[in-house]
Protein: ATP-sensitive inward rectifier potassium channel 8-like
Amino acid sequence: MLPRRSIIPEEFAFSPALLSPIHRRPVFRDRVNKARFIAKSGACNLSHKNIREQGRFLQDVVTTLVDLKWRFTLVIFSMTFLCSWLLFGMFWWLVAFAHGDLDPNRKPGVEQCVTNVNSFTSAFLFSIEVQVTIGFGGRMITEQCPTAIMLLILQNIIGLIINAVMLGCIFMKTAQSHRRAETLIFSRHAVIAVRNNRLCLMIRVGDLRKSMIINAVVHLQVVRKTTTPEGEVIPIHQIDVQTESAVASNSIFLLAPLIICHVIDKDSPLYDLSAMELQCNDLEVIVILEGVVETTGISTQARTSYVTEEILWGHRFVPIVTEEEGVYSVDYSKFGNTVKVATPRCSARELDEKPSILIQTLQKSELSQQNSLRKRNSMRRNNSMRKSNSMRRNNSTLAVPKVQFFTPEGGPNLVVT
Structure:
């Protein structure tokens, strides 16, 4: 049997020399399955499993009710009132039964403990009227039964406690602090660029509401997997990162969108990372903004995070605050826009050891800007020359031709019209 010939001709086949290992630059791909500690919306990407002591959640009932979803909260809210009405309805029925009010053969002169309570249904209706203070005048308590008076007092006290707890939970659930955090926004990407001759990590934050956040504080953390010298693996190692306003306790005046700057110095966990090493590194920058809501006085917190794919090296945020007719205007359509700037690709450590790298980078960028400016000027000159030549040609074609007239004597007379 003849061997099957290859589809590729032999002259185009790879030679053994070409199959030798070739040194190539590493290709970075998006890590789709990479888990992040904090989502972009601020939610913690963490699941709790195998919790054996579930009873601890019942010791803090209020927090448990507030943390539940709305459908479970409404079901518990309704069932609590319904069960209390049924329970005290049964008690009122027992009081009526013990006093003989349910006996159809009772003496006509004997007064009932509760008038017009002749069945469990009427006892249940009277329980609802007592607890929610709905009185229709058909059923009422009398002074014949001290037990019924005590039961009335007990039901009123328990009903007030249930109302206070349930309404308080509903109010706390509707006025949660993270609702205010929905209008606190962060830039989609973080950037690394040179500011004041130092490499800096910059993030933009803003507030969409006119009501301010009082005592706003920004915290930065770097979360990454580390291994100690003893061989212990720490999957989530949180490292605090200082911002540029660390001297003033990180307090910011969030009147307009601000750029939070972290100087990458020797105390920074990003000090030894270059642009290429940052893409290979598995770390996450967490940003936490805390403050007090001016209108309600409730503390709020907004969170977000940036993985290495969301950190742009050599970029800078565009300005979005302008002055228009004596009023400062903020253009939120450009909130996350960035522009490329001249930035060394080396690490901050190398930049501190060799300051000439920054000077060379700035000189190269200045030369490139000058060259681009020259090219633009030359292109403009060429375009202007082309336009002038075309206009001259058009004028020459539109010029009036010369006409020669002959006199009768035969002498030519040149007349231009």
Q: What stands out?
A: The domain at 57-174 is CATH 1.10.287.70 (Helix Hairpins). Residues 1-32 have pLDDT under 50 and may be disordered.
